[in-house]
Amino acid sequence: MNDIKLVRVNTKNFDDLVGLEVNEDQINFVADNCYSLAEAYATNADGEGAAMPFGIYDGETPVGFLMIGYNICDDWEDEIPDFSVNSYFVWRFMIDKKYQGKGYGRAAMKLALDYIKTFPCGKSEWCWLSYEPENEVAKKLYSSFGFVERPDFYKEGDEMPAVLEL
């Protein structure tokens, strides 16, 4: 893990990133990368929010996928939380099964937060994410960066939202 970096998705790395996979027992924790890229395209075409998909690389080797969103707040059924309006969202985050447990997740999350703190879409007070409550590895990683769960916006069967003040 010498040269970890985020690389914007493009026509040259698209196939490599679509081919990344998580372990069988993690499939229900994260959307398929191809679906995520289609969702990014649709979001950007709508023009109401922004989706920024990246490959996570170690040198020239793709080891994961990350998608950051901005002002993504249309999935809430009831009240829209204040932390989701004009804020950054770690929308997708995965490390390929061959590279898990080697520190790539922690290094990539640091890079993602460093990027978010440049405020590429505008100044914001919050960054948020959500995860399956039974995904203890994700919960531990995110809380180590200061993300705090918001159970007041959790509904049974949904993902647990967590927020970080920027």
Can you characterise this structure?
This protein is an alpha+beta fold and 166 residues long. It has one domain (4-165): 3-Layer(aba) Sandwich (Aminopeptidase), CATH 3.40.630.30. Helices cover 25% and strands 28% of the residues. It is built from four helices and seven strands; from the N terminus they run E-H-H-E-E-E-H-E-H-E-E. The protein has helices at residues 14-18, 33-46, 104-116, 136-144, and strands at 4-8, 50-58, 61-70, 88-95, 126-131, 148-149, 160-165. Strands 1-2-3-4-5-7-6 form a seven-stranded mixed beta sheet. A hairpin with a 2-residue loop joins strand 2 (50-58) and strand 3 (61-70). The longest helix is centred in the first third of the chain and has 14 residues, at 33-46. It starts with a strand and ends with a strand. 33% of the residues are buried. The mean pLDDT is 89.
Summarize the structure.
This protein has 166 residues and is α+β, with helices and mostly antiparallel strands. The chain has four helices and seven strands, in the order βααβββαβαββ. It has a single domain, classed as Gcn5-related N-acetyltransferase (GNAT) (Aminopeptidase).
